[in-house]
Design goal:
Largest sheet: 8 strands, mixed
Low-confidence stretches: none
Shape: globular
Structural class: alpha/beta
Length: about 280
């Protein structure tokens, strides 16, 4: 039986997830595979490379750097999170991503993207952290309206959360029967219809299937939550999520707020540490 870790996105809410996986790494808790969406992919790759602390470190250190995230970056590059800076200069020069450890790790790592032509999710396995792999992660985290469409693997793609925000079904379909799912919204949360849909229809008028998927995203997301609760009752899924709404926006430049959300994740993981161990060790 393979064990998996499913990481939801949520931009800077993802630091809650980073806190959880750092505690798991520090306590030697491993899984057979990881699938990340958006920030879940961008931060979750550090689990495979065994680099606890890296995600919060570079987010705090570069929170106010306009190259990292800014309106200036959006205006001049088309990406609110600077593509070259965030996905190449930072991991390759400024806060090194351990590509050798990533490649050597037996943990399987997948990212989820959305194909803008079909509106369907794309699940890509990454065995090494080369330039193309980092572009796959960038595609997974490229939020609509504030990011350019990313061309990688012969496809045009945006944020994986559009088509499959919590890909538990996908992981179960490829043999991951027991999964920890980390959500960045509290229990009881339900997604509402996208208020920016009129703008999205104008901006992405060349991609009608993408528009349709975005228009239905709240319905798909809420249905997936119901599936998660059912799997939790069956004992096949352990859900970790904040106890209340996280005190952070999707985009945040205050290092103290970033650190606070990360610490909430750490505290949550430490509280449930024995439950995590027991869940992974027991046969379902």
């Amino acid at each position: 039986m393979k064990t998996g870790l499913v990481l939801e996105g949520g931009a800077m809410r993802g630091l809650f997830s980073a806190g959880i996986i750092d505690v798991m790494m520090e306590h030697g808790i491993s899984v057979d595979g990881i699938i990340g969406v958006s920030a879940g992919a961008a931060f979750g790759c550090n689990y495979k490379s065994n680099q606890p602390g890296r995600a919060v470190r570079y987010n705090v250190n570069y929170a106010r750097d306009p190259r990292y995230c800014s309106i200036r970056s959006l205006l001049f590059t088309g990406d609110i999170y600077g593509a070259d800076f965030c996905y190449h200069e930072l991991p390759e020069k400024l806060d090194l991503f351990d590509t050798a450890a990533f490649a050597a790790s037996p943990v399987e790592f997948y990212v989820t993207c959305t194909d803008v032509l079909t509106g369907e999710p794309v699940y890509q396995k990454l065995d090494r952290a080369d330039y193309e792999a980092l572009e796959w992660i960038r595609a997974s985290a490229s939020m609509p309206l504030v990011s350019r469409i990313v061309e990688v693997g012969g496809r045009k793609m945006l944020d994986g959360g559009i088509a499959d925000s919590i890909p538990l079904r996908r992981f179960r379909s490829i043999g991951y029967d027991k999964n920890i799912v980390v959500l960045t919204q509290p229990r009881g949360y339900r997604k509402s219809k996208n208020s920016m849909l009129p703008v999205i229809k104008r901006v992405y008028r060349k991609y009608p299937k993408l528009i349709d998927t975005i228009a239905r995203r709240h319905e798909m997301y809420n249905e997936t939550l119901e599936y998660l609760w059912q799997e939790e009752k069956r004992g096949t899924t352990l859900i970790l999520c904040p106890d209340e709404k996280l005190p952070i926006d999707r985009i945040e430049h205050d290092p103290e707020k970033l650190r606070a959300v990360y610490d909430i994740g750490r505290t949550h993981a430490e509280k449930h540490l024995e439950g995590i161990r027991t869940f992974l060790q027991n046969e379902t």
